[in-house]
Amino acid sequence: MILQHPMLMILLRKILVMMVWVFTFPAWAQNPLAESLLNASPETIRANPELLSYMNSIAETAITENCASCHGADLTGSGAVPNLVDYEWIWGIDGFEMTAVESVMEIMQTILYGVRNTDCAEEIKMFGGCPDTRYSEMPAYGNQGYDENKLNNMVDYVLSLSGEDVNPFAVEAASGDWPVCVECHDVDGTGYTPFGGPDLTDDIWLFGSSGPEIYDVLANGRMGVCPAWAEELDATTIKALAVYIYNKANGY
Ligand code: HEC
Ligand code: HEC
Questions:
Q1: What is residue 25's predicted lDDT score, i.e. its pLDDT?
Q2: What average pLDDT score do residues 219-247 get?
Q3: I need a labelling partner for 237 at 20 to 30 A (CA). Which of 7, 52, 106, 188 fits?
Q4: Residue 88 reports pLDDT greater than 80
């Protein structure tokens, strides 16, 4: 039936989200600072102390209420929950070439739709995730014919990327398998942010830096989740959060 067509469902969902935003319109229209915050570029906000402090207070309240439980009150994260204020992005932002607006748009996408968000109706899901959510899978190579020996060699290869002293024969043996990883982690292992593959060459580890912890990731895969906030938070709050995170990550 046409009414159950997945594209139509996605469209209906988008219209619903837009309606929620439009209905919150009077709240921010009455407050000129809220309206300026929605329209201003990150640079304009930073240059206006009144607007900046208004934005910071909105962001800090939203963080305490919604994000601190996972990312920590100062957003530095821990374990599998990433630090949001260190300019080491998993999703969307790659290097320092992007403009502030482009970077803030990427952060907003992550906040609006989440990472591997599955909290929506089955019929609108694509590849198991909700529409527009950041999605990719760290495969479970233990289910793809990689035996213990192969996985152990790959652990050494991964450790060699961050300069660890490992068995060179294991690294050599695993180098033939590395091409399957580059789609998400890039050829040099620094990560490919459109697919959320973390940088394997730095000393930041979501799931632990020890051999057995890395082995477990390679054998069993991972599917980290950040909730979607499009239906929980209004447009002003989403914008405030994204610019706040961008500012902190840049040390402003
Ligand atoms: C239930 C725990 C949880 C909550 C609550 C949560 N997050 Fe997350 N968040 C995560 C996890 C886990 C990841 C990493 C997902 C992955 O594996 O890529 C993440 C990733 C992110 C990223 C991507 C970071 C990057 O390097 O690209 C952003 C941005 C983010 N969260 C913002 C927020 C904001 C803003 C809030 C509050 C409104 C929030 N999160 C609430 C768990 C959470
Ligand atoms: C289709 C994309 C994809 C491919 C292919 C892939 N990975 Fe990943 N990898 C990811 C993602 C996404 C994560 C983060 C998972 C999460 O946050 O839930 C990850 C995480 C990891 C981690 C953990 C990093 C940390 O910070 O703890 C290691 C190690 C890793 N991958 C190694 C590999 C190796 C080695 C290969 C090839 C044999 C590989 N990956 C292939 C997407 C991929």
A1: 57
A2: 97
A3: 7
A4: yes
Pocket test for ligand 2, best of 83, 180, 184 (most atoms within 8 A of CB): 184
CA distance 246 to 252: 9
Distance 34 CA to ligand 1 centre (A): 24
Whole-number Å distance between alpha carbons of 76 and 83: 4
* CATH, domain 141-220, list 1.10.10.10, 1.10.260.40, 3.40.50.2000, 1.10.760.10: 1.10.760.10
DSSP 148-214: HHHHHHHHHHHHHHTT----HHHHHHHTTTGGGTHHHH-TTSS-BGGGTBPPSSSS--SS-SSHHHH
Q: Whose CA is nearest to atom 36 of ligand 2?
A: 181
pLDDT more than 90, % of the chain: 84
Dihedral, 128, 79, 203, 86 alpha carbons, nearest 10: 90
Q: Tokens in use for 218?
A: 């390679």
d(CA 189, CA 185): 5
How many angstroms separate the CA atoms of 148 and 120, rounded?
37
Evaluate: CB of 193 within 6 angstroms of ligand 2: no
pLDDT at 222 over 80: yes
The CATH fold assigned to 2-120+227-249 is Cytochrome Bc1 Complex; Chain D, domain 2 (1.10.760)
Ligand 1 atom at shortest distance from the alpha carbon of 193: 27
